[in-house]
Amino acid sequence: MPTLIADLDRAVVECGADTAALYDRLAPRYESFRGLWLHLAGGGAERAMLEDLRAVLRPGQRVLDAGCGTGALSRRVLELEPDIALTMLDLSPGMLAEAEDLPAERVVGSVLALPFADETFDVVISGWVIETVDDPLQAVREYRRVIRSDGHVLYTFCSLPDGWVSRAGTGWLRRAVESDFAGNFLEEPRIPWHDCERSHRRRTRAGLATEIVIRKCCPIGSPLVIEHEARR
Fold it and tell me: How many angstroms separate the Cα of 143 from the Cα of each of 4, 18, 54, 84?
């Protein structure tokens, strides 16, 4: 692990604020970093997303992996259902290059402005992405925009634990992710989701990781944002 952390620190220093360049540089070893995160905190949330995905995937569907990285999640999707039309989108060409073997369309682009028409996909999945962008709410609005009326959006992200004990105990891990992966642990007011009968949220590892499933009809935003927009 010390070598991995040293590689992360070196990449951050050399790439500065250029997120695409950072992930281009990390691409060859990204799966090692990702595996460490899943082991330490994110594994439960990702397993929950795959369970939910298994329940909604059908042959012939169009599926978008938004912020696909090196394609680890896309590989799992294809294992669950090989007969889909898969699109992989990422800001980093270097990340996409690591997934050249997958039977998918690969697109360089941002989750904040998806280069797809409304209602293009049946399913959008996004693993550990929205916490790395300036506007998580906008990213999820884009996910919802491109799904069809009966579609599903499933996403995981780093979230800030409740309570000072959990926050203190996870401080070292949160600092590492925030400094080395251009990511944040989203506080409750910044979490884009809606609690209704057609959506749900699961939090794991004392709230350090979160999985959410939403549908086309779900308003997107924190409870305060939704209440404000409803009054306008």
Answer: 32, 24, 19, 18
Contacts of 112 (CB under 8 A, 6+ apart): 133, 134, 135, 138, 139, 142
Give the bridge partners for 54, in sequence order: none
**Could you give the CA distance from residue 84 to residue 65 in angstroms, rounded to a whole number?**
12
pTM equals 0.82
Domain span holding position 79? 2-231
Which runs of consecutive H residues, i.e. helices, occur in 16-147? 19-26, 30-37, 43-56, 72-80, 93-97, 136-145
pLDDT in tens, 18-62: 667 777 777 777 788 888 888 888 899 999 999 999 999 999 999
CATH of the domain at 39: 3.40.50.150
- φ, ψ dihedrals at 64, nearest 5°: -110, 125
- Residue 114 dihedral angles phi and psi, to the nearest 5°: -65, 130
Number of domains in the chain: 1
CA 118/CA 142 separation, integer angstroms: 9
Distances (CA, A) of 202 to 75, 145, 155, 221: 23, 23, 11, 16
**Distance between CA atoms of 223 and 175, rounded to whole angstroms?**
27
pLDDT in tens, 85-137: 999 999 999 999 999 999 999 999 999 999 999 999 999 999 999 998 999 99
Angle subtended by helix axes 2-15 and 171-180, to nearest 10: 40
**Max avg pLDDT among 34-38, 73-77, 189-193, 220-224:** 73-77
